[in-house]
Amino acid sequence: MNIVEELAKLQQLRAEGALTDEEFAQAKRKLLQDDTSHTVPTAAQTIKLSLKDGLDEIVDEESTLGGAANRYVSFQYTSLIVGAILFVVVAIIMFTVFSNFSNGMQHGVNNFPGGPFGH
Fold it and tell me: What sign does the dihedral 29-21-57-9 (CA atoms) show?
């Protein structure tokens, strides 16, 4: 385990309440003093470490770009299904109205004085 991973583990233990701030500071000092074989983390590593620790608590799947994309796709599927159902309902209503109108017109022609062929 390298120094960055060990620092991350210490930070996690402190965030979980397993270490007090004082215990964390002591462990961090000891880790940095004992670790002469590794280099001290660069500024980029330190920023990455602090951002990761800070964001893990507030970022969940729903607030990521992937979560937004999943919600958009679900919305599209739902819209497609609702649209298809509405189309079928309107088509049935229109067919029923047209059939009744057509039957009514045929009935009216047959009952016209003189019949459909003018008899």
Answer: positive
Report residue 117 as tokens: 């062929």
Tens-place pLDDT, residues 78-96: 999 999 999 999 999 999 9
Contacts of 2 (CB under 8 A, 6+ apart): 38
This prediction's pTM = 0.37
Residue appearing with tokens 């459909």: 116
Cα–Cα distance, 111 to 119 (Å, whole number): 12
Q: Do 38 and 82 touch, CB atoms closer than 8 A?
A: no
Report whether 49 contacts 11 (CB < 8 A).
yes
- One-character DSSP codes across 4-41: HHHHHHHHHHHHHTSS-HHHHHHHHHHHHHH--SSPPP
What residue has token string 């819209």?
79
- The b/e string for 15-32 (b: 16+ C-beta within 10 A; e otherwise) is eeeebeeeebeebbeeee
